[in-house]
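Retro notes, item 3 of 5
We never archived the inputs for the zinc ion complex last cycle. Fixing that now. Sequence and ligand:
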Amino acid sequence: MKISILGSGSGGNSTYIESEKGKILVDAGFSCKKIEERLNFIERELNDINGILITHEHIDHIQGAGIISRKYNIPIYITPESFKAGESKLGKINPENLRFIKDKFIINDSLLVKPFDVMHDAQRTVGYRIESQSGKVIAISTDIGYVNNIVRENFKAADVMIIESNYDYNMLMNCNYPWDLKARVKGRNGHLSNNEAAKFIKEMYNENLKKVYLAHISKDSNNPDIVKDTIAQELRANKINLDYELAKQDVATKLFEI
Ligand SMILES: [Zn+2]
Ligand SMILES: [Zn+2]
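Structure as it came back at the time:
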């Protein structure tokens, strides 16, 4: 399995994952052109994509999904609730390319995908546990206000974790957001802080885990150095040696193979 975070943050989110036979995007929150460019950067192309999995209907996750589906004839996998809430942003989707998800499904005889519900302030939000035929697992949740047991269960024994590290608590409290937005971000239906992400990584650490990506890092209430420090400190304190990388808004991460 190979993975690249094509970009992550409030300006757009998209992740590329491939196995031997299946190639997918999780979210398509950039323009079609930008996603083409980011894929070119890792020497891949939209022509080869077998499906777009949507986590929820916020614009930073679905902006390009409808256009890409129409232009490249790619199926969209989405919950009925997210589709209903995001239908006007997605535009007309060929009924054959609209796949409503409920439980586990398989893409191209190759990737076993399990959606799971997470807490966030969309109509409905899911994370995904994605397993290859050889049993490698990638777990992803980029917009999540609170880690509950369903989330823990689905991140169990993952080889790669992609988890949100949205804000630093003090920076959020001191930034110029209006109070209700601050409350929204830090609430259980908002986003995950650096400290919460660090604790979750420590909790989920297992000998399979090869890499963690920190995603959806806020530009207003966080900065990369604080993210690195917070994660490094938690790992050091628990004597955990683990490779981690910060996903960026403007550039794709290099393909990583597990
Ligand atoms: Zn969101
Ligand atoms: Zn988002």
